[in-house]
C-alpha cells in the first residue's frame, strides 16, 4: 500500500480523547490531527516521538490531517510503526491477492465488509464455487514490550472477543474462519497474545482455535512512502 500523498513529518505533542493528537510541524506550528486508533497505543503515544501525518487535501474536513506513522522506541531501538487501524484491511487484501498468505489462496472472489453474525461485518469474505466460504477477521498489531515478540491486544477488547466467537460460529456452520493479525512494525519475529492485558480475549482465542478457527500473523515493512505486508511469522501461545 502506497501512501497517496507525501507524508508530512512532525513531532507528537500529545494524544488525547482517543481520536485526537497534537503534532508540532517542522515550522514550529502545532496542528490537531485525527488519530485513527481507538486502542491504548501502549508505547506509541509518548510526547516527543517523531511522527508523520497525511493531508486529505480537504480544507472542509473538520480535521484535515491524519496521524499515520510514529517512530517509537522498541526493545531493539527506534522503529517506525503504523498506527492507522483503517490500514490493515487493505494490507490484508493485498497480502492475500499477492500470495503472501498461501493458506488463503485459491479463491475466486474477495469481498470486504460483508454483513454476518451478530450485527457484525466480516473484514474479508473469500468465496469460490465448490468450497465453503472463508471468513477472515483482520486485527491491527503494534505492541512490542520485550525481545522481538509482537503482542495483541494492547488493551481490553470486548469487541475482539466477540469477533472470535462469531468466527467459531461460522466453523460450526461448516464454513472456514480465519483470524489474521497484520503487524504494522518490523522489529519482531514471533506473535503472541497479551494475556495480562486482556485474559478474556486470550481465553476466547484459545476456544476459537479449539473450535477450528485458523490464525495467521503477517509482519509489515514500514516506510514514509508505503506499508507492505510481506512476512508470515509464527504464532506462539
Beta strands, count: 15
Rg, Å, rounded:
18 Å
Helix/strand order, N-terminal first: EEEEEEHEEEEEHEEHEE
CATH class of the largest domain: Alpha Beta
Unreliable segments (pLDDT under 50, ≥5 consecutive)? none
Please, how many domains?
2
Query: So, CATH architecture of the largest domain?
Result: 3-Layer(aba) Sandwich
Topology (elements, then pairings):
Layout: E1 8-16, E2 20-25, E3 30-34, E4 50-55, E5 65-74, E6 77-82, H1 88-98, E7 109-116, E8 120-128, E9 131-141, E10 143-144, E11 149-152, H2 158-172, E12 176-183, E13 190-193, H3 199-210, E14 214-222, E15 227-233
Parallel strand pairs: 9-12, 11-13, 12-14
Antiparallel strand pairs: 1-2, 1-4, 2-3, 4-5, 5-6, 7-8, 8-9, 10-11, 14-15
Helix pairs in contact: 2-3
What keyword list fits this structure?
alpha+beta; OB fold (Dihydrolipoamide Acetyltransferase, E2P); Trna Endonuclease, Chain: A, domain 1; 2 domains; six-stranded antiparallel beta sheet; 15 strands; 16% helix
Amino acid at each position: 500500500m502506497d501512501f497517496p500523498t507525501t507524508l508530512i513529518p512532525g513531532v507528537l505533542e500529545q494524544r488525547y480523547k482517543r481520536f485526537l493528537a497534537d503534532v508540532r510541524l517542522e515550522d514550529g506550528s502545532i496542528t490537531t490531527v485525527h488519530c485513527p486508533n481507538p486502542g491504548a497505543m501502549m508505547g506509541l503515544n509518548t510526547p516527543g516521538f517523531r511522527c508523520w501525518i497525511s493531508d486529505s487535501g480537504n480544507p472542509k474536513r473538520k480535521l484535515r490531517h491524519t496521524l499515520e506513522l510514529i517512530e517509537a522506541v522498541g526493545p531493539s531501538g527506534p522503529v517506525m510503526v503504523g498506527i492507522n487501524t483503517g490500514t490493515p484491511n487493505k494490507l490484508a487484501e493485498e497480502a492475500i491477492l499477492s500470495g503472501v498468505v498461501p493458506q488463503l489462496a485459491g479463491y475466486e472472489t474477495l469481498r470486504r465488509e460483508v454483513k454476518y453474525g451478530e450485527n457484525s461485518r466480516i473484514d474479508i469474505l473469500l468465496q469460490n464455487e465448490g468450497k465453503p466460504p472463508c471468513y477472515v477477521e483482520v486485527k491491527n498489531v503494534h505492541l512490542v514490550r520485550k525481545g522481538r515478540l509482537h503482542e495483541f491486544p494492547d488493551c481490553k477488547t470486548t469487541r475482539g472477543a466477540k469477533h472470535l466467537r462469531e468466527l467459531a460460529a461460522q466453523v460450526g456452520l461448516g464454513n472456514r474462519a480465519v483470524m489474521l493479525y497484520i503487524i504494522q512494525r518490523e522489529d519482531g519475529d514471533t506473535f503472541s497474545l497479551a494475556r495480562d492485558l486482556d485474559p478474556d480475549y486470550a481465553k476466547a482465542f484459545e476456544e476459537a482455535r479449539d473450535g477450528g478457527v485458523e490464525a495467521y500473523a503477517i509482519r509489515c515493512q514500514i516506510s514514509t512512502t508505503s506499508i507492505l505486508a510481506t512476512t508470515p511469522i509464527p504464532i506462539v501461545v
